[in-house]
Amino acid sequence: MAPGLVETIHEEPSTLLRGSAKASKHTSTLTYTPGQVPLQDHTDYAHDWARPTFPNVRWPPLEEVSYADKGLLADPQFGNLLSSATGISDYNPKIGTEITGINLSTLTNAQKNDLALLISTRGVVFFRDQKDFDIEAQRSLGAYFGKLHKHATTSVPARGDLDDVHVVFTDSNSRDQRANFAPTFLWHSDVTYELQPPSYTSLKLLSGPPQGGGGDTLWSSQYAAYDALSPYMQKYLEGLTALHSAQMQADGSLALRRTVRREPIVTEHPLVRTHPVTGWKALFFNPGFVTAIVGVPKLESDSILRYLNEVVATMQEAHVRFQWREGDVAFWDNRICNHSASYGFAPHRRHAVRVAATAEKPYFDPASRSQEEELNAKSGLPPVNKDGSGISNYND
Q: Which of 34, 60, 206, 260 is buried most, with the most CB atoms less than 10 Å from its CB?
């Protein structure tokens, strides 16, 4: 959930229709209303168990837990995972891969290890139509990767025994919050203020807008963000840390008179981190939770954060956009990705459940490598030009 994006939960009227088909005087039965698709009927809704609730409970601070990344046990060629697949394709060179033919609920441990390596490498991996991947299977797979994270403020399923599941829910009566946030601010990596922020994270769409109704999610590669920087900026940031704060999320919950289940914290993390599986360097910054760079004047900190904000939010080659269908699952690594939901899908319902595994404390190893430099060297590509002082004619 975005840092200050406070969910307002309502029930949508089942009689609301928009963009319904109309009789045509022509012989074709096909009709079309630009920008509008019919609303789904949720009268007999199959996912009432996952309706959002905000329990009035309080938890102690999180304690450090041991973590061993399953990606380190994987086949470097992903052979175990691909043995059950019917297809695999990348969305673009930097981020995003879709696999077909895989049933996430029946993976062997060896296949789970390969999946961890693939997510560590590609940032986010998509699986379509995972009907068998129910909440028990989703939690079991998440727990294989690490201790499941329990969010201190966001909603959990109404079933009552799933405190480690985060619910995403918006319907036709939810408040339109586009005016409250700059679009770039909504880019975030989940709960980076924790001492051990999450690694492998899954989101399954239970119900969403039909095709053309909006509600896509975007991811941005933090490997690519680091690689876009000049070597001088890379070196500068590698020596710095930043503050990640939970205060805005807590304040938003308190404003709606909801319980903050764990006291908000502020945590200092490196601005560039090393991924323990790939050994690649990644920018560890997001506009939503990072409030300041430690050890530099405020003017300098604010200027650098604005610059990094622009890198994360506007560098298209580092982005992937996923158009959901019901039953689809996205699995990403919060250590190396930012993500953002997209507005504009009202009045449709968008309902999903998320499970996140706790990872290691972020760290930086000076001996770690650049993803772009390593992959370019393997492919025989020349070093990327980072001198922007020359004259060029942009070619679209």
A: 206
- DSSP string computed for 53-81: E------PPP-------GGGGS-TT-HHH
pLDDT at 9 over 70: no
The sign of the dihedral angle between the CA atoms of 333, 113, 134, 102 is: positive
Number of H helices, E strands in the chain: 8, 17
Mean pLDDT in residue range 190-210:
97
* 43-63 tens-digit pLDDT: 999 999 999 999 999 999 999
pTM, rounded to two decimals = 0.92
Extract the tokens encoding 272.
């560039």
SS (H, E, C) 195-251: CCCEEEEEEEEEECCCCCCCCCEEEEEHHHHHHCCCHHHHHHHHCCEEEEECHHHHH
Q: Residue 170 in 3-state DSSP?
A: strand
Q: What are the tens digits of pLDDT across the range 366-384?
A: 999 999 999 999 999 999 9
Rounded Cα distance between 13 and 34, Å, is: 23
User: What are the two backbone dihedrals, phi and then psi, of residue 141, each rounded to the nearest 5 degrees?
Assistant: -65, -40
Question: Quick check: bond before 383 cis, omega within 30?
Answer: no
Residue 18 is predicted with a pLDDT of 41
HEC string for 273-285: EECCCCCEEEECC
